[in-house]
Amino acid sequence: MDGDDFQAYKDEIQALEEEIRLLTEKYEDMQQESTFFSDEEILNSIKSLQRETQGETKGDESLSDLKAQLERLETDLSFLMEITGFHFTSHSKKTVEKTQNRTVQKHRLSGKCHSLSFQLEFQLLEMQNNEKVSAVVSDLSIVMDSTEDSNVSKFVSRIEECGDLPIFFRSLSTYAEWYEHRKRTFLHFK
């Protein structure tokens, strides 16, 4: 074997190793993503999955299990949407930085709580120490369509400063529910 053949094989091996590394990173990013899908996207995914598995003979059993699991998840999602009043319309996540024990992701989330629309943008820093994982929200930005009430604007500003998403969602749920009651009451008197 001469040197040129050896170098060509070595270059090919390096190219394949780089491709494997990139595909592994892409796979890990896809595994970590928690994306909310619209009903149309879910149906498209089901149809795509059905097309992929139609030619497989042993896939019939796993396909029925997947369909049952998807139906349970859809039922759970609609139950949670009914209870909380939240309907998420879009979610995107981009990994900004990733090391062995630290991950920074940028999230964009939009949706409605009852009739109030909202959009969130924030960074999530996840740090892993031994077996414990901690997460910190930073750079929180909240946009709400209905900000005619100055108290809502003040509340949003405070939440943006402290970055406490659970308090935001709990408070928004309660406020939006009572906002709906107030609207119906005022319509009744008109």
From TrEMBL:
GO BP terms, alphabetized: CENP-A containing chromatin assembly
InterPro entries in alphabetical order: CENP-P
Keywords: Coiled coil
Coiled coil: 6-33
Gene: Cenpp
The name this protein goes by in its record: CENPP protein
KW Coiled coil (keyword) present: yes
Organism expressing this protein natively: Prunella fulvescens (Brown accentor)
GO CC terms, sorted: chromosome, centromeric region; nucleus
Keyword GTP-binding on entry: no
